[in-house]
Amino acid sequence: MASNAVPSGPTARRVAENVAKIRKARQLDQKELSARLSDVGRPMLPTVVSKIERKDRRIDVDDLVALALALNVSPTRLFLGSSYDEHEAVLLTERVRATSRTAWRWAEGVEAIAIPVDRDKDGWVRERDFSTISQPPARQRFAQSPAGRALTSSAASIEELHRVAESPVIGDVGSAPDESEFVAQLARAKADVDRLSAEIDRLASEREELASWAQKSASSP
Questions:
Q1: Is residue 87 within 8 Å of residue 97, measured between CB atoms?
Q2: pLDDT classification of 62: cutoffs 50, 70, 90
Q3: What pTM, to 2 d.p., does this model score?
């Protein structure tokens, strides 16, 4: 029984900490969170909520979903936290660590994380295997379409542009700052957005042609 009293892994500990942080940020006491959990169909006494936050009670997947619903956050926010950074590590298991940005992208089904058993796989093989199983077929079809690829590329470029724009400006006092990285990323982002815009125009044109063909077919004797 003692082995079930304390969460055994880093993710369980992080969930417990995030439940307490978000509950307080929502200005809820443990009794109010308990009532919300009953409303979503997962009753827990305030004492149980307290045990979760103290890491004295394990959280199963049904608890995780119910807590996320009751706190009005995504389950990912509970088990990964609020960081989204290339330089801050998140311990997913006792043996697997990733940057918080990569961990979020992994949880969203966007990016694979290398683990010891697949370390010999090429990166593209790992990503293919990951996306094939992680994403619903409809989302896979869109992601592999020209529009989907253009959207993914644009989103990544704009996200990187935002990161560069927020990074500290490098330069000696009295001299012009080094803006080369920002300028280069701005050009890449604009090019990707242009490709996305062109793909949207192509889809609109194809749809217009299809509608015109359907109209002509319907009016033909």
A1: no
A2: very high
A3: 0.77
